[in-house]
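Hi, here's the filled form for the chain we discussed.

Project: internal
Contact: R.S.
Residues: 156
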Amino acid sequence: MKTLLKKQIGKISIMALIVLSCMSCKKENIKHPTPNAGSYNISENAAAGIADLMSQAEILQLFEPIIPGEYTFESGEIKVEDGQACLVLRTRGKATLTEFTIRCDLVNPENEGGLTLASGEYTLSSSDASSSPSTHPIPSLASKKKTYVGHVTLLK
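And the returned structure, exactly as it came back:
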């Protein structure tokens, strides 16, 4: 009877230790501050395997209403300019040499690594010397399942 009681107390002690050790464990959040330099092509998003990261096609779909009909997408990248992460999309006219560049600032909320649109605005600039850059509202991300336009770990 004494050995059975000792075994029971031993099992309870072990269970109590396991429970207490699990309670003291906490999830460690890895901080990903935005680098001061670096860039990558948005086509690399699809191969990154990062949750909630938009693919190039999803980013283009978001900005499709912005790109004038006579222009086609040429290239896009996430880069750091003057210490600020941004999304830069370049379009080229089908019948002209004029290029339009769409630039949006990105933020890394809470240093989690995911870069999201910083504000509701983008800047549209043209290679045509006679026009000046203009600011416009960005279409809403609210209806999108994925929210991250880029990720700091991909900036090289």
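Let me know if anything looks off before we file it.
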